[in-house]
Design goal:
The complex is a heterodimer of chains A (318) and B (308). Helices cover 73% and strands 1% of the residues of chain A. By secondary structure, chain A is mainly α. Chain A has one domain: MetI-like fold (Orthogonal Bundle). Chain A is flat and about 80 Å long. In chain B, α4 crosses α11 and α6 packs across α7. Classes of the chains: A mainly alpha (318), B mainly alpha (308).
C-alpha cells in the first residue's frame, strides 16, 4: 500500500477505520470541543449566579418587611432609623426619569435614523455616523457631570416655568439619559430601515409619493418591528441607568412626578446604597437585592420582548 | 433626447417640465415635507450640539488643572493637591485584566456557537438567549452580583482588584461574544470549505484559517467593548471602589479605585474646586478612550483596505 509514502502508518491493511494518528487528532478535537462548550456555558452560569445572588436576600427581605407595606407606603427611607420601606417614591422616580429619557431618545433617534437612511448623501453619512458613535462611547459619569453642572444650571433652572429648580432635578437627569440612549436608538432604527427592500421605496416614489410620505407611509410600517424592538431597548436602558441619575437627580427619594425636583430611581438607589457599604445581612443590605430583583425582572422582560420582536422582523425579509 | 443623462444641466424646457410635475404636489403636501425634513435635521442636531456642548464645557472647566500634577499626584481631600494617579493605574489594572480574561473566553464562546454548536438543540438556544439577555442587563445589576457572589459570599475576595476585574469581565463578555461571532461569520465560507476539503479537522480549520482572518474584526470589536469597561462606573460603586486610594494597586488582592469613580467622587464633592479636578480627569479619561477607539478604527480601516 501507499501508506509509507505519507510517512506515518495507516490502520490495518485495507481498513477504513481511522489510523492511530487520526484517532489522536479526533480525541484532541473532542477535548477542544468540550472546552469551548464550557466557555459558552459561562454566560448561562452568570445568569444563574445573578438569579441566585438576587433571590435569597430578596426572600429574606420580604420575610422581614411585609409585601403590603412595601407596595403601599409612600415613604422610602430604608437606611434611616426608623426605616420605612414604601417603594412608591422609587417607582414614580423611575417612571419620571424613564419617561423623559424615552421622550427624548425615541423621537430624536427615529428622526436621526430617517435622515441617515432616507435623506443623507453618502458623504454626510460618513461624517455623521462616526460622530454618533463617539456620542455613544462617552462614559455615563461624564454625562452625569454634564447634566449636573451644565444642563441643570444653564438650561433647566433658567427655562423651567413651574417653580424653582434646585441643584438636582429629574428633568436634567432624564434629558441627558435620553441623549445617551439616542445614538443606540438611531443606529438600531436605521438598521431596520435600511433592511426595507429598495423596490418598496421606488414603487412609492413612482406612484407620486413625496419623500416624507415614503418615510411615514412605507418605510415606517415596513420597519416597524425593528423600530419597536429598538424602542423597547431604549426603555430598558433608561430604567437601568445609574450614574447619570445619581449625579444629576441626587439621592432624595420623593413621591412626586414633578420633573423640577430631584428624585431617586431604582437603579440610582442601588448605587447610592452600595456606596454606603451596608453590613452584610442587615436589612439595608437586603434592600439592595430586593430593589435589584425588581429591576432585573423588568429589564429581563423588556430584553426578551425586544429579542422576540427582532426575530419576527428578521423572518419577514428572509 | 438620447444624450440626456443625470449630469447634464437642465434646459429651460426640461426645467419647466420638472416644475409642472412638481406642481401636481399640492402646496400643503410640499409644506409638510419641508417641516418633516426640518424635524429630522433638528433631531440630529440635538445629538450633535449636545456632544459638542459637552466636550467644550468640560474642556473649558477642566483646562486649568490639566497638567502633569494631575496625573502625578494621588487623590487627596485638598483640592489644590488632588490628583488621579492611583485611579489611572487602578483602571489600567482592572480593565487590562478584564480584557485579558474576557477575550479568550468570548472568542471561545463565539467559536463554539458558530462552528461547533449542534443546530436546533434547546441548550444552544439557551446559551444564545443568555448572551443576548446579559448584553441588556443594567450594569448596576452586575455590581450586585459582584457584591453578593465575588466580594462576599462564595468567593469572598473582598473589595479588591480581582473582584473589580472579574465583574468587568462578566460585564463585557456578552459584547465580546457578539462582536467575535460577527467577525467569524464574515470569514468567507470558501476558506473553511477549502481547508476541510483538504483534510483538515474542524479545529485545524478554525485555528489556522478562520481565526487568523477574523482577527481584525475580533480585535476591533473587543477593543470597543473593553473601552466600555474603562468608562464603567455603576457596578464598581457597589464594590468599594469609591474611596480615596492613595497608592497604586500592586496585585489582585490590592484595594483600588478607577478613573470614572474618582471623577464621580470629585464631582459630587461640595467644594467647587473639586469640580475643576473632575473635569480635568474627564479629559484624561476621554483621551484614553479616544486612543483605544482610534486603534480600533485604524485596525478596521487597514483590514478593509486589504480586503478590497
Amino acid at each position: 500500500m501507499a501508506a509509507t509514502t505519507t510517512g506515518r502508518p495507516l490502520g490495518p491493511e485495507g481498513s477504513l477505520l481511522p489510523s492511530g494518528h487520526l484517532r489522536r487528532r479526533l480525541r484532541t478535537e473532542a477535548v477542544i470541543r468540550a472546552a469551548l462548550f464550557l466557555a459558552a456555558l459561562v454566560s448561562v452560569a452568570t445568569t444563574g449566579a445573578i438569579a441566585v445572588s438576587l433571590l435569597r436576600p430578596t426572600i429574606e427581605f420580604f420575610s422581614e418587611i411585609p409585601v403590603g407595606e412595601f407596595f403601599s407606603g409612600t415613604t422610602w427611607a430604608p437606611l434611616f432609623v426608623p426605616a420605612q420601606f414604601g417603594v412608591w417614591p422609587l417607582i414614580t422616580g423611575t417612571f419620571l426619569v424613564m419617561a423623559i429619557a424615552v421622550l427624548v431618545a425615541v423621537p430624536c433617534g427615529l428622526g436621526a435614523a430617517f435622515y441617515l437612511s432616507e435623506y443623507a448623501r453618502p458623504r454626510v453619512r460618513a461624517v455623521v455616523k462616526p460622530v454618533l458613535e463617539v456620542l455613544a462611547g462617552i462614559p455615563t459619569v461624564v454625562f452625569g457631570f454634564f447634566a449636573l453642572y451644565f444642563v441643570n444650571p444653564q438650561i433647566v433652572q433658567k427655562f423651567w416655568p413651574f417653580g424653582n429648580v434646585g441643584t438636582f432635578s429629574g428633568l436634567a437627569a432624564g434629558l441627558v439619559v435620553g441623549i445617551m440612549i439616542l445614538p443606540t436608538m438611531a443606529s438600531l432604527a436605521e438598521d431596520a430601515m435600511s433592511a426595507v427592500p429598495g423596490s418598496l421605496r421606488d414603487g412609492a416614489l413612482a406612484l407620486g409619493a413625496t419623500r416624507r410620505e415614503v418615510c411615514t407611509k412605507v418605510i415606517f410600517p415596513a420597519a416597524l418591528s425593528g423600530i419597536v424592538a429598538a424602542s423597547v431597548l431604549a426603555f430598558s436602558r433608561a430604567i437601568g441607568e445609574t450614574t447619570i441619575v445619581l449625579l444629576a437627580s441626587g439621592s432624595n427619594p420623593q413621591f412626586t412626578l414633578n420633573p423640577g425636583q430631584g428624585v431617586q430611581t431604582m437603579s440610582s438607589f442601588i448605587g447610592f446604597a452600595g456606596i454606603g457599604d451596608q453590613p452584610t445581612g442587615s436589612t439595608g443590605y437586603k434592600t439592595i437585592f430586593a430593589v435589584g430583583t425588581v429591576l432585573f425582572v423588568i429589564t429581563f422582560v423588556l430584553n426578551i420582548l425586544s429579542v422576540r420582536i427582532v426575530r419576527r422582523f428578521r423572518q419577514a425579509y428572509e | 433626447m438620447t444624450a440626456t443623462t443625470g449630469g447634464t444641466p437642465l434646459t429651460t424646457e426640461r426645467r419647466r417640465l420638472v416644475q409642472s410635475l412638481a406642481s401636481t404636489v399640492s402646496v400643503g403636501r410640499r409644506l409638510r415635507d419641508r417641516v418633516f425634513f426640518g424635524l429630522l435635521i433638528l433631531s440630529l442636531l440635538i445629538a450633535l450640539v449636545t456632544l459638542f456642548a459637552l466636550l467644550i464645557d468640560t474642556f473649558l472647566t477642566g483646562q486649568t488643572r490639566l497638567n502633569s500634577d494631575l496625573v502625578q499626584n494621588m487623590p487627596s481631600g485638598r483640592p489644590a493637591r488632588a490628583g488621579i494617579q492611583s485611579a489611572i493605574f487602578g483602571s489600567l489594572w482592572v480593565v487590562g485584566l478584564a480584557g485579558a480574561v474576557s477575550l479568550p473566553l468570548g472568542v471561545a464562546t463565539a467559536v463554539y456557537l458558530e462552528d461547533f454548536a449542534p443546530k436546533g438543540r434547546w441548550y444552544i438556544s439557551l446559551i444564545e438567549l443568555n448572551v443576548q439577555n446579559l448584553a441588556g442587563v443594567p450594569s448596576v445589576v452586575f455590581g450586585i452580583l459582584g457584591l453578593a457572589f465575588i466580594a462576599r459570599g462564595p468567593f469572598s475576595w473582598g473589595f479588591t482588584v480581582g473582584t473589580g476585574a472579574m465583574v468587568l469581565t462578566i460585564l463585557v463578555l456578552p459584547t465580546v461574544v457578539v462582536a467575535s461571532r460577527e467577525a467569524i461569520r464574515a470569514v468567507p465560507p470558501s476558506l473553511r470549505d477549502g481547508a476541510l476539503a483538504l483534510g483538515a479537522t474542524r479545529w485545524q480549520t478554525i485555528w489556522r484559517q478562520v481565526l487568523p482572518s477574523a482577527v481584525p474584526g475580533i480585535a476591533t470589536g473587543s477593543i470597543l467593548s473593553v473601552s466600555r469597561a474603562l468608562g464603567e462606573s455603576a457596578p464598581l460603586l457597589l464594590l468599594g471602589a469609591l474611596t480615596f486610594v492613595t497608592f497604586n494597586p500592586d496585585g489582585l488582592d490590592s484595594s483600588f479605585t478607577v478613573l470614572p469613580l474618582l471623577i464621580f467622587k470629585y464631582a459630587s464633592d461640595a467644594k467647587a474646586e473639586f469640580h475643576v479636578v473632575a473635569a480635568a480627569a474627564i479629559i484624561v479619561l476621554l483621551i484614553m478612550l479616544l486612543t483605544m477607539n482610534t486603534a480600533a478604527i485604524l485596525i478596521r480601516n487597514r483590514y478593509q483596505n486589504r480586503r478590497s
